[in-house]
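pasting for ref
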Amino acid sequence: MTVLDIVEEDLHSLDAATARMLMADDCLTAHDLVSACLRRISLRDKDVKAWLAVSDRALEEAGRLDALPKAKRGRLHGLPIGIKDVFDTGSLPTTYNSPLFQGFQPARNAPAVDQLVAEGAILIGKTDTTEFAAAGRDAATGNPHDLAHTSGGSSAGSAAAVADFHVPLALATQTGGSTIRPASFCGIFGYKPSFGLVSREGVKTYANSLDTVGWYGRSLEDIILLSGVYGVADIPVWPAEGAANPDGKLTVGISLGPNADDLEPASREAMELTAKRLVEAGHDVRWIDFPVSFSELDSWHRIILRREGGASFRNLHMLYGTGLHEDFRAQVENRDGRTLMDYRAALDAAALARPVFDGIAGAFDLLVVPSAPGLAPSGRRPGNPLFNCPWTLIGAPCLNVPLKATGLPLPIGVTFMAPRYCDEALLSLARIAAPALSAE
């Protein structure tokens, strides 16, 4: 990309990998990039409502970073990023989108945020979320592709901010489907790494056995960039527009998932189109079914979620009583009637299912499943996580890949998966397979 190209293209639309390359080549400054993002937010966020707070220090920080010699610049030098408002931030309020925490100011950043700052990222602000990334109050965020529809949840603001070109990168979390589903609804890349690979210290806990830090980007290279920062995958980042994807034939397993009866026509079409394009690209695609027992994964997930959610919100129930949203009081009071023996049985069943999944996924280079039941619903509800919860419970790495030129009225994506803790292989092989999904 030349300087002329930069003038012709609005800076806010750059993906992180390209912006990084341009700054390394002295064709772009962090100040100019942050300025463009802030202008975009000012123009669009009154409608999209992706942000709960926007930093008044971002431009100052960009100027400081521009003055650094290249030898002292980090991997994320000058890149603007949005932070889901369940991560502690020492320079911005952390409200969890809860009326109980308006104006709450943590003393320091969550380690997951500090890692970004240490590599030169610029915190643009805090993005909207379902209350406590769990239930209760919905995010106010609309889908940038049609504001009458949801951008998903709970990471609604982060997904919309990336999709609407406010920032090239954003942090998310997933306990059920809160990273992958919004990525599908908004037409962006989203990544949930294998369970436990990124610190959750300083992030609001919902379910300790399930909560996972995730992130969004506009390109696969953006996802890989943050994966390197977090030590999830050590893969060199290519400029998104210049990435020379390795040639190679992959063996791809594709499935409608263990709850296929609940899949809507749009997602069925998306899965069939994905299979068709992968075959046309020369890959060996095989349709598979999961074991019958996998139809119980969602139920086991729900039992674990409710019991651990009750534990997480018990202190707020004690402090605020009926001031705490009904959804959380119901979990604390165990209104579902799930016993500790139910909880133990669900944990044990999940533990047995994980190596079975690893064996199935390990028989292929990539496994492909739906990212959502269908297109983004109307309204502001977050959508159904049924097609994400099983894989969150398994703890497998999940990558939403947008499917282009579908003829559908809203975006949709599919999920690439691999065995647990094979994140680096998943992202490397996604470079080979993902371009087929963008074919016209």
